Amino acid sequence: MILKTVSGIAAFAAALVVAGAGFAQQPPANPLDVVPDKMPFDIPYGPAISLERADAILAAALADAKKRDWKLICSVVDSGGALVSLKRMDGAQLASIVIAEHKARAAAKFRRETKLFENAVQNNIHYILSLDDVIASRGGIPLVDGGKLIGAIGCSGGTSSQDEVVAKAGVAALK
Q1: Do 29 and 55 have their domain in common?
Q2: Is 128 in the same domain as 157?
Q3: Which of 106, 120, 138, 140 could disulfide-link to 125, CB 3.0 to 4.6 Å?
Q4: What is the pTM of this model?
């Protein structure tokens, strides 16, 4: 009898827990409905990168591409997205001239890597493609110095993962 009563109380308590969970605040069904406490990618814009620094970043990026025998085009834009320098390796596909600049410009304007746009599209967040100047392909990375965005690098000509590797080699030269 005591065992039956204890079992009944346990079942009643379990039912209350399950019922209470139904009233608990549920996470939004749509991840886009999540409201973050802080602004994402809130990197302040800084002064424009100099031509000298841009060329040093591009030299590092292209040295990495050459070491791997990848024919790429890489560009650096300033903090406002205007072209500072572009380098084209011999034999790189001509379409990559504008793509490299586009990747750099998008990374500077949106203050984030273009890989995030690629990830959004792969996760069926297609509205991202309706935003002006977005490019959903890796290889565009912001250049941040002293906590401020001074420009961005964009690389194109290989697969997007190859473009990203070379862009990261350029970013590493900034430090």
Answers
A1: no
A2: yes
A3: 120
A4: 0.81
> Residue-wise over 32-59: b if at least 16 C-beta within 10 A, else e?
eeeeeeeeeeeeeebebbeeebbebbbe
- How many CB atoms sit inside 10 A of residue 90's CB? 5
Task: Determine the residue type at 7.
Answer: S
- Asked if residue 43 belongs to a domain, the reply is no
Clarify whether residues 154 and 91 are in a common domain. yes
Distance CA 55, CA 84 (A): 9
C-alpha span between 1 and 171 (Å, rounded): 73
At 94-105, the pLDDT tens digits run 999 999 999 999
Say if residues 153 and 84 touch (Cβ distance below 8 Å). no
Query: Rounded to an integer, what is the distance from CA 24 to the centroid of its chain?
Result: 34
Task: Say how many residues make up the chain.
Answer: 175
Domain shared by 26 and 63, yes or no = no
